[in-house]
Design a protein that fits this description.
Blueprint lengths: L1 E8 L3 H9 L6 E5 L5 H10 L5 E3 L15 E8 L7 H16 L4 E5 L10 H7 L6 E3 L11 H6 L2 H10 L3 E4 L1 H14 L5 H8 L3 H9 L6 E6 L5 H13 L4 E6 L3 H14 L2
Parallel strand pairs: 1-4, 1-5, 2-3, 2-4, 5-6, 7-8, 8-9
Length: 271
């Protein structure tokens, strides 16, 4: 009985669901419950029979999560809003990997460098004495992908080409299209009444500048997939673009990087 552990950013919900659906050899999907996994749980339950899904009430001891099938996948979804805090995202990803380690034979991190916040992730995991094999999303050269956009547009080269051809560009994946308001919510949480009054006067563009330091986006590039609701995705891209008076360009994405990483995990656990 073998297990792969996946620690994933909430941004990858659609793509992770598609990835799992491609592998009939997966006998059991175990989800770690949290606020950030609630939507993914609904997606799983709409796709699979309940018998194939387990909600892991306890991760503290292996006796609470006994192996039951030839191939199982344990999934921990981390909050998208961690993007705002470089130190927190490092700590939370490492802690999630350490927590899941004793239950799996391999750990796959569905993350890129995230603005270089996760640049030293391999060293951090080694320092935490992660004893099972692990990896993060990488290209064919073994280099960590810059971010989720880079991973879903297909390659670092395609990503850089888009950046060279378009100035003041914002990339929109299905996850970004759905979750970007969470960044504004997180940034405006626990602020005083005076600041809240100031924020209430701001439009989305001004709030976005406050959160990410930039909002002068001339083009919104939507990374689209065959397995998503394209009409809904394009509507969300257009709605986002309307706040910035931006043009929308739709590009075809793929999950080859995710698929290659999962294939590597499958080979590793069979050694």
């Amino acid at each position: 009985m073998k297990r792969i552990g996946i620690v994933a950013c909430e941004i990858f919900e659609e793509e992770l669901l598609k990835l799992l659906s491609e592998y009939d050899i997966i006998n059991r999907i175990i989800l770690v419950p949290s606020d950030s996994s609630k939507e993914f749980q609904k997606m799983l339950e709409s796709k699979y029979n309940y018998e194939k899904i387990t909600i892991a009430r306890e991760l503290c001891s292996t006796r609470f999560l006994k192996r039951q099938a030839p191939l199982e996948v344990v999934i921990n979804i981390l909050p998208f809003a961690l993007h705002l805090y470089a130190e927190d995202i490092k700590k939370e990803v490492v802690n999630a990997a350490k927590e899941i380690e004793k239950h799996v034979d391999y750990i796959l991190l569905l993350y890129g460098l995230c603005g270089n916040a996760l640049g030293p992730i391999r060293e951090l995991l080694i320092n935490r004495k992660i004893r099972v094999p692990f990896d993060i999303l990488t290209n064919e050269k073994g280099e960590i992908m810059d971010d989720c956009i880079c991973a879903l547009i297909g390659s670092s080269e395609k990503y850089l080409k888009e950046l060279e051809e378009n100035t003041n560009i914002f990339f929109m994946t299905p996850g970004w299209a759905k979750l970007w308001p969470k960044l504004l919510e997180e940034k405006t949480r626990n602020i005083d009444s005076k600041k809240m009054a100031e924020l209430s006067e701001m439009n989305v563009k001004e709030k976005f500048r406050m959160v990410l330091g930039s909002s002068d986006y001339k083009k919104i590039v939507g990374i689209e997939f065959d397995f998503i609701d394209k009409a809904n995705f394009r509507d969300r891209c257009n709605e986002f673009a309307s706040h910035f008076n931006s043009d929308v360009i739709i590009k075809e994405g793929n999950i080859d990087i995710l698929r290659d990483s999962f294939e590597k995990a499958l080979k590793e656990i069979e050694k």
